[in-house]
Amino acid sequence: MSETASRNQGPIPVCGFEPSAKTHPLTYRLHERDSVLTLEDYQALDGFKGLDEALSHGSSDVLGIIKDAVVRGRGGAGFPAGLKWTFMAQPDGGPRYLVCNADEMEPGTFKDRLLMERLPFQLIEGMIITAYAIGATAGYIFIRGEYVEAAERLNRAIQETINAGYLGKKIKGKHFSFDLYVHTGAGRYICGEETALINSLEGRRANPRTKPPFPQVSGAWGRPTVVNNVETLNSMPSILRFGADWYKGLGVESTEDAGTKLYGASGKVNNPGVWELPIGTTARTILEDYAGGMQEGLSLKAWLPGGASTDFLTPDHLDLNMDFDTIGKAGSRMGTGLIMVIDDQQDMVAVQRNLQQFFSRESCGFCTPCRDGLPWAVKTLDAIQAGNGRASDIKQLKQLTKDLWIGKTFCAHAPGAMEPLQSALKYFESEFTDKLPASERGEQNAEVSTQADAAEAEKPAPVKAGV
Amino acid sequence: MLIVTDSRPRVDANQILGRELVEQIAHHTHHYPQKRAAVLDALKAVQKVHGWVNDTQLAAVASLLDMAVADVEGVATFYNRIYRQSVGRHVILVCDSIACFLTGYEELAGELQAELGVEFGQTTADQRFTLLPIVCLGNCDKGPSLMIDEDTHGPIKPGQIKALLESYA
Ligand SMILES: Cc1cc2nc3c(=O)[nH]c(=O)nc-3n(C[C@H](O)[C@H](O)[C@H](O)COP(=O)(O)O)c2cc1C
Ligand code: SF4
Ligand code: FES
Questions:
Q1: CB–CB contact A105 B36 (8 Å)
Q2: Quick check: A198 and A411 in contact, CB under 8 A?
C-alpha cells in the first residue's frame, strides 16, 4: 500500500531528455541508479569529487567561487548563499556552526524529501564543502520528525562518510575538522524559520529571535551560524567541480538567476511530481510538459508558485519565468518553486479557509497580531462560507492583510499567511462577496452605487444558479 | 510523587525510565554543547517506549538534562508531536494542508472518522488508534496523504481505508 516506497525505488522522471552531470547537477545520479545511492554508488558516480576540489583550494577561494556563482537560497527567500556566508563573524577559536534547514513543512513542498531520501551523500558533501568555506566546526541537519526514512539514511550515510575519512578530525589531512549530526524535530511549521529553528535546536520552544544580531554573528548557542536549505547545499558539489561560470549558464536565457531548480506540481494535474529544470523555466512548461496538464474536465483557475505562503497568480501569468525576480515583479514570490494548481471546481473561500487555518494553527503565539489575527481570519472566512458574512467582513479581511504585514509582526509567518489572502481578494473578490447574504451584498454595492444599480434594485434579488 | 516545578527536581531517573532509556538520552546529549538540546530527543525516546510522556517521566527527563520541570513542560507542550496524554497503539496523522485538501482530504477525513468511530483528537475505545491532524507531510504529489506511526501513505482513494487500517493490529 505504501506508495512512498515506490518513490525510493523506481527511477524518477527528473527531466524529458537524457540527464547528465552538467545539465542536471542535482539529480542526474538518480538516473544511473534506481534505488537509494550507497557510498560505493555515489563514489562511482563522481561523489566527493567536488569536495576533493574544494579541499585543494584555500577556504576563502571556495567561498569566492560560491559567491561568484550566485546561488540564491532555495528555502524560499532567495538570498545568495555566498553573500550570506561572508557575514560570518571572524573566527575566534570557538565553535562555529552550519545548520541545514530540512524542516520542509511549507504546504505544497516535497523537494528536500526526495534529495534526502535518495541522495543523502550529496547533501553531506555539500555541507562539508560549505563548512570548509565558512570555517564551521560542527553541523546539524535539522530534519522534521516525520521524515523517518530520510533521517535514517542520513544517519547511516554520515557514519559511512566518517569511515571514508571525509568527516571528523583533520579531514583528508587538512587543518579542517567537522562533525555532522542529524537533529530530528517534533512538529511545528515555525521551526523552519531560521531563528526559531535555532531555538528549537537548542531544546527550546520554537519562537523566532530578533534580528539583528543575525545568526552569522550570534546563532546556535550564541555562536556564528549559517542556516541553509537542503537544495541550496545540494548545489555546492557540482559548482566546485564545474565552476561558477558553468553554474551561471544553466538557467534559461531570459533569466538573471543561476543554476537548476527542483520544480514541481501538486493539485489536480495529471502527473504531479518534482523535476530538475533550468531555473527560469516557465510555469506553463512545468505544468503542461511535465505535470501533464490539468485532469480531464478541469481547467486552471489560479496557482501558488511556491507554497502556501506565496501570492496566487492566474492563468495570465503562466508564461512568466519561474525565477525570483520575475515572479516577484508579478506580485508573488517563487518561494520553494513547487507549484500548486487550483482548478475551476475549487471554491476560493474554502481554499482560503484551509490556508488560514494552517497558518493560524502553526502560529508560534509569540506576538499578538499573528496570534489573534490569524484565528480572526479563520472565523471571518467561516462566517462567509456559512452564509453569515457581512459586507464589512471583506473590508476587515483586507485590513488584516495590512495589519499582519511585514514590520507589524515579529517574524515572516503572519505576512506569509497574508500573501494568499491578499491575492485571493485581489483576483477573486466576487467569490467572497457572492457568499454574503443578499442584504449584505446590497450594502457592498451601495459603495459604488449608480443609477443602474438603483434600477436593478427594483427587480427581485438574483438567485445564484446551482452550477 | 510531589513535583516541584520551580526548581530542579530530585527524582531517580534510572528508576523511572530504566537504564536503557537513560543511556539513550545520554548518548543524544553528546551531540550538543548543552545538554538541554537533547530534550526533544529524550521526550521522543520515552514516547517510543511508552507511547506518550507522563508527569513522572517528564520530571525524570528534566532531572537528566538539568532543566526545571516547567521548562521541559513548556517545550513538551509547544511541539505537537510530543504527547502529554495517552494515545492508542497506533497514531494516525492526517494531512489537512492545501494540496491534500484539493485532492480529497475531506472525504478521507470523513471516512476515517466513520470507520474509527472517533473524531480528531480522540482514541478508539479499544486503544488501537488515535486520530490527529498534521500539516503538510511533504507528500503532496500523492495527496490525500496520511501517516500511521512511521509510515507515510498516499494517495488514499475512497474505500481504501478499511484495508489499510487492518494492517495495523
Ligand atoms: C514561517 C517560515 C517557515 C520556513 N520554513 C522553511 C523550511 O521549512 N525550509 C527552509 O529551507 N526554509 C524555511 N524558511 C526560510 C528560512 O527562514 C531561511 O530563510 C532558509 O532556511 C535559508 O536557507 P536558504 O538561504 O538556503 O534558502 C521558513 C521561513 C519562515 C518565515
Ligand atoms: S508572526 Fe506569528 S509565528 Fe512569527 S513570532 Fe509572531 S506569533 Fe510567532
Ligand atoms: S499538503 Fe498534504 S502532504 Fe503536502
A1: no
A2: no
**Is the CB of B84 inside 8 Å of chain A's CB atoms?**
no
A404 CA from centroid of ligand 2 (Å): 10
Instruction: List, run by run, the mean pLDDT of 10-residue segments along chain A (467 residues).
Output: 36 58 93 78 94 97 98 97 97 97 98 96 98 98 98 97 96 96 98 98 98 97 98 98 97 96 97 96 96 97 98 98 98 98 98 98 98 98 97 97 97 98 98 94 54 46 39
Instruction: Say how far apart CA A81 and CA A230 lie, in whole Å.
Output: 12
- Where do the domains of chain B lie, and which CATH numbers do they carry? 3-78 (no CATH), 90-166 (3.40.30.10)
Q: Whole-model pTM above 0.90?
A: yes
Tell me the C-alpha distance between A1 and B66, whole Å: 44
Residue A82 half-sphere exposure toward CB, CA atoms < 13 A: 19
Contact of B88 with chain A, judged by CB distance below 8 Å, is answered with: no
Angle (nearest 5°) at CA A224 between A220 and A229: 70
Alpha carbons B139 and A3: distance in angstroms, whole number:
10
Q: Mark yes or no for CB contact A3/B155 under 8 Å.
A: yes
Q: Which atom of ligand 2 is nearest to the CA of A208?
A: 5
Mutate to test the pocket of ligand 3, among B135, B137, B147, B152 (most ligand atoms within 8 A of CB): B137
| Smallest Cα distance from B12 to chain A, Å | 22
ipTM for the predicted complex: 0.96
From B67, B61, B64, B28, select the one nearest B47 (Cα to Cα). Answer: B61
Residues of A in contact with B78 (CB under 8 A): 188, 205-206
Rg (CA), chain B: 18
The grid coordinates listed for B110 are 470523513
HSE toward the beta carbon, residue A111, CA cutoff 13 A: 32
Q: Name the residue among A248, A236, A198, A191 with its Cα closest to residue A74.
A: A236
- Judge if the beta carbon of residue A76 lies within 6 A of ligand 1: yes
Helix or strand holding residue A295 (H, E): none
Report CB contact under 8 Å: B163, A343: no
For residue A191, report the distance from its CA to the centre of ligand 1, in Å. 9
CB atoms B103 and A268 under 8 Å: yes
